[in-house]
Amino acid sequence: MEKHYLNSLFDPRSISIFVNGKTPQESIPYLEILLKLFEEASYAGEVERIDIAVPIDFNKNDLKKKGLAIIALPATELITALDLAGRLKHESAVIISTGIDIPTSNQLKELAKHYSIKLLGPNTMGFQRPHLHLNASVLGDLASPGPLALIAQSGALTSAMLDWAKTNGVGFSFVASIGQNAAVDIAELLDFLGNDGKTHSIVLYLEGITNSRKFMSALRAAANIKPVIVLKSGHKPAGNEAAKTHCGSIVGSDAVFDAAIRRAGAVRVKSFVDLFSAAKCLASSYRPVGNRLAIITNGGGPGVLAADRVSENNLELAKLSTESNDKLRPLLSPLASLENLIDLSEEATAEQYCNAIEIANSDKYVDGILVIYSPKPSINSLTIANAIADIKKQVNKPLLSCWIGDSSVVESRLNLSNANIPTFRTPEAAVGAFANISSFYTNQKLLQQTPPPLSKSNSPDIEGAKLIIENVLASRRTVLTEMESKSLLSAFHIPITQTILAKSANEAIMIANQIDYPVALKIDSPDVSHKSDVNGVALDVMNALGVRDIFSHMTQTVSHLLPDAKINGITVQKMVRNKRGREIYIGLVNEEPFGPVIAFGAGGTMIELLNDQSMELPPLNQYLAQQLIKRSRIAQTLEEWRGTPPANIEAIEHILMRVSEMACELPQIIEMDINPIIVDEFGAIAVDARIVVSNSYQLNNSQSGIYNHLAILPYPHQYEQMYPLKDGGEYQIRPIHPDDAQMLKAFYKTLSDETRYFRFISNAPELPPSMAAKFTLIDYDREMALVAIVKEAEIEKNGTWVETEKIIGVSRYSTNPDKSSCEFSLVVTDDFGGQGIGSRLMLNIMDVARDKGLSEIDGLVLSKNPGMLKLMRSLGFSVENMIDDPDFKIVRKKL
């Protein structure tokens, strides 16, 4: 609950603007613009100018800490100015500049690190904090205050957004233009905005990502608290000629980015127009809880257009309940229709519009409301708009408007916007805006999933799988043969067809006789990527004569088409013949910067043509696997279809989760293609597989490094342990996860006022839902929370006993900005004091910190908390007075 470390940058105690008195101000364009805008913004804090050309006496003993240094000087003077800012003890700095090269950027960042300066820049147009009247930018006039934050990797786009906001009544809590290679990066800005009380939602424009783990961590944390909308430029064509598997050829970086944003709980828009539309809705602080949109209209045509777009956007057209219908019908014209749309008829009045909105707002089958008005000569559109604006405060669901037309509805649109009701010119745009915001609700469910890397039952043979890969790499190969690929799948309990390698035609005949006809013959060569392309596959071979002839013909054909290919032989396998079977594929590809990505879709020989790609980042659990299947086009054919029983979806989920385990445990896999997988009502079986590996990734078997190749760290089950209680029974210590939010709120209520104050410096009776979410959905890579849990048996009203869990203690650490130390917190419920639980929680959390490579742990303890200070001393912590605040002690320990 302490202030964020970037507060000194974005909420500075004072401001120093650096100038150069020897250079005419008009010859430094950014500085001239900055000074003018800064004066117009009427910043109320202390402001001074520091001339880098004037010598300064640094021997003064009274040199006090300063706040923010704003530097908008030529590139040749930036290092001098930042060095001066550091020597003058500035806590933070912003460098407004463009075109600064990487060596100079790195030098500036090293200088900032030396002086412990929080540096925004270089290559930034600066930032704005409208509610502080702070315009430390050259982006234009200071924006109006509001709940929306904007971060963009483009100064031009940021300026355009601010200009658009002026005429659309959108206000901002924070605006920043940040370029590549910046010291304070986008991940850190997301961290700050996630904790900023003035920011209710975030809009993000990206051109590139460098550290995917750090970015995903910050994005997940921010999106857990408030809506985040992302627009990314740069779309790469999906086709990749160098790919060695089907999966590698159909998965493109843009589709992977989609999957990453979705998994982070944010929403991606694809165009600048959609970004503006989403910003309108976010500025209205809407929090939709579903995808059912009610359409209220005075014209059938526009209403039907909106309804069509509802279907296209995977939304649901909301229909009023029978009870709501009965209430609304007497209030409307006899010409009104409530069948699908709420069509009020052409002569609809302001009162009828308001009645319809109020009843739709109270209907449990409605998640959002779109009001459409088409101009009618006899109706005053302004009267209707003003009436809707008046009842806006009574509406607790997303309310959007579409006033069709131009000159006759300009004032109406303006009044609706002023009432914080997003308004659009076309029904399609309005529906699209609701679709983008409602995606936030769907993606939040994905965000809450923190699956483990491995299932607890039926563990895979990881060591055996590693040996297969090591043998392939040792023979200087990267592509596994079909036999090796299927052996790898078997190690992870993925069902495969029986496959035997034959070196000669006679061997093939004997194998076929043993496994029974019909059989399939396939060329076995590490140099053949797609067997069908070189006639390397023969299906439904019915007898020994066919096996002999095909063996000879196939080897000759492949040798002719690929003279340099090494042919190991031909595999023989039993034909999987099932008229009810569907062909699917499951793949894995490594796509920078996000690492491994799992793909699912329609399989068979036409996989590239069908291009059915549904993607998800590992690790997966059953819910994530289900959503991955539902997003594919082939999902519809897996249901009951033309007399064919529904496919066994659980069998597909099983394979997807096993592939997820392979992605987590075998970072050497860079491409994998299981195609086809035949699935029917009884199960699923992999018919063919191709796996590509690389030795570029060295395994790190430490707890902290084993999953470094993943963008999302799995739930760290390795830290789960059981301990005995002194008075009998036992308790478990394990990492916290999102499902613990309600237990954590209940735990907070059990704390005494004194314990609550010692831990949270607050006596609030309840833990707010936003804080419970923040404390339970964490990124295990940069923080950790361990909970101590006991199980209790309670008797239900029907006389049955039910076992429940409750939290009795929590220890937590967060990594400090220096990335080498961490800050801890600890609290144990009063009912379980004196049982050594606090000591055990601290020892365990320190073990996790050591595992992560941290070297020091520290924390703040109230001076009036002797129990905690005694515990810290017993664990070897040093206890020091806090100079700035005598109410606290600083406790530290080297790890």
Task: Write a structural description.
About 2% of the residues have low confidence. The protein is of the alpha/beta class and 895 residues long. The longest helix is centred in the middle third of the chain and has 21 residues. Among the domains are: 164 residues, Succinyl-CoA synthetase domains (Rossmann fold, 3-Layer(aba) Sandwich); 178 residues, Gcn5-related N-acetyltransferase (GNAT) (Aminopeptidase). Helices cover 34% and strands 24% of the residues.
How is the secondary structure organized here?
Elements: H1 7-10, E1 14-19, H2 29-40, E2 46-51, E3 66-71, H3 78-87, E4 90-96, H4 102-114, E5 118-129, E6 134-137, E7 145-152, H5 155-168, E8 172-178, H6 186-194, E9 201-206, H7 212-223, E10 228-232, H8 246-250, H9 253-263, E11 267-269, H10 272-283, E12 292-297, H11 300-312, E13 316-317, H12 322-328, E14 342-343, H13 350-362, E15 368-373, H14 381-391, E16 399-403, H15 410-418, E17 423-424, H16 427-447, H17 462-474, H18 482-491, E18 499-502, H19 505-515, E19 519-524, E20 537-541, H20 544-561, E21 569-574, E22 582-591, E23 595-602, H21 607-610, E24 614-616, H22 622-630, H23 649-665, E25 669-679, E26 684-686, E27 689-693, E28 721-724, E29 730-735, H24 741-750, H25 753-760, H26 769-776, E30 783-795, E31 801-815, E32 821-828, H27 837-851, E33 856-862, H28 866-874, E34 878-881, E35 888-894
Parallel strand pairs: 1-2, 1-3, 3-4, 4-5, 7-8, 7-9, 9-10, 10-11, 12-13, 12-14, 12-15, 15-16, 16-17, 32-33
Antiparallel strand pairs: 5-6, 5-8, 18-21, 19-20, 19-21, 22-23, 22-25, 23-24, 25-26, 25-27, 28-29, 29-30, 30-31, 31-32, 33-35, 34-35
